[in-house]
Amino acid sequence: MKLTSPWTGILSFLIVLFTMPLGHAAMILMEKLLGHDLLYPAAFGLGVLGIVMLLIGIISRKETSATFLGLFGGLFVWTGWIEFGYVYFANRFGVQPLIENGQVVTKPEYLIMPSSYGFWAIVMLFYIFSTRSGCNFFNWIQRKIHYGQPVETLQPIIRNAAMTTFMELNVLLWTCYMILLFSYDNEFLGDRHPVTMLIAFGSLAWSIYLFIRLLKIKKLAYAIRYAIPTVIIFWTFVEILGRWDILTEIWVEPAHYWLEMTMMTIAFLVLLGVLLFKHRK
User: Fold this and answer.
1) Transmembrane residues, as ranges (predicted)?
2) Exposed / middle / buried, residue 198 (Cβ in 10 Å: 0-12, 13-18, 19+)
3) Given 102, 126, 228, 259, which residue has the most CB atoms within 10 angstroms?
4) Is 65 exposed, middle or buried (0-12, 13-18, 19+ CB in 10 A)?
């Protein structure tokens, strides 16, 4: 029996959603369980594994397999090379965390991440001015800035499901991190600023709209790719709730909330298995 479109969308959303807290928890456990001599080689190896998964996905002829390889390859590269890369250089050069009321509110690695805004802008310029993509947001901007010139005149990059998923995940994570970090910074806005509140509830509303559209998708590979922006935009709202101390971020202390995190891991594996099994049938 094949999954109907609502269930394909719901399960795709939940699978991508579970990768967010589990990825955070895995990073924290690596920091605590691996010593200084092992942590960064392990993180580099994690990134290499992500690249290998991406390359396998690129040559795969099955769109669903390629999409999942792009998803997990992107997660491994983001965690191993990008997040732990910032951790390494923040620790190496003695960057101090941001402390408020005796508590760490922003870790050192996230304090230096906004410095990558120039690279982010370059990537955005490429996607907006130099290529055609399947992103409705980019397409809308292109229609507005090309002054009547049809968007079809922009040539798409050679389409590959693994690379598309990989880039979509990393660019969206990067974008939302930048939005959050600039919003939290008191030099720009601050976490209680009205604009930050607008970002929070705007992200919630946007993710609900995307989720409703996701429920109509029948194709599994497309549903997974569509679930990525849906989840990451929703997770922006979750992150701000945690910053406001409205939500307990159990994934920040996985050793303390080991039972909840274990149940979440089991649920993730079960949902992934059910989705792939039903899709195969």
Assistant:
1) 41-59, 66-89, 117-141, 161-182, 194-212, 224-244, 256-277
2) exposed
3) 228
4) middle
Collapsing DSSP to helix, strand or coil, 98 comes out as strand
Torsion of CA 126, 110, 233, 32, to 10 degrees: 120
Give the pLDDT mean for 65-78. Answer: 94
Closest to 73 measured CA to CA, from 43, 47, 94: 47
Read off the pLDDT of residues 260-276 as tens digits, 9 standing for 90 and up.
888 988 988 888 888 77
Element (H, E) at 103: strand 103-106
Domain ranges of the chain: 5-98+173-276, 99-151
Query: What's the distance, Cα to Cα, between the start and end of the chain in Å?
Result: 6
What Rg value do the Cα atoms of the chain yield, rounded? 19
Strand partners, 106: 98
- Mean pLDDT, rounded, for 250-264: 85
Kind of pairing between the strands at 103-106 and 98-100? antiparallel
Amino acid letter at 179? I
Instruction: Give the lowest-confidence range in 109-118, 215-224, 246-255.
Output: 246-255
How much is the pLDDT for 1? 43
Burial environment of residue 113 by CB neighbours within 10 A (0 to 12, 13 to 18, 19 or more): buried
Contacts of 209 by beta carbon, 8 Å cutoff, 6+ apart:
none
Q: Tell me which residue has tokens 């269930």.
A: 7
CA angle 144, 196, 253 (to 5 degrees): 120
Q: Using the Cα atoms of residue 278, residue 166, residue 30 and residue 114 in order, give the sign of their dihedral.
A: negative
Looking at per-residue confidence, does 6 or 233 come out higher? 233
Nearest-angstrom CA–CA distance, 11 and 129? 34
pLDDT value at 147 more than 60: no
DSSP 156: B
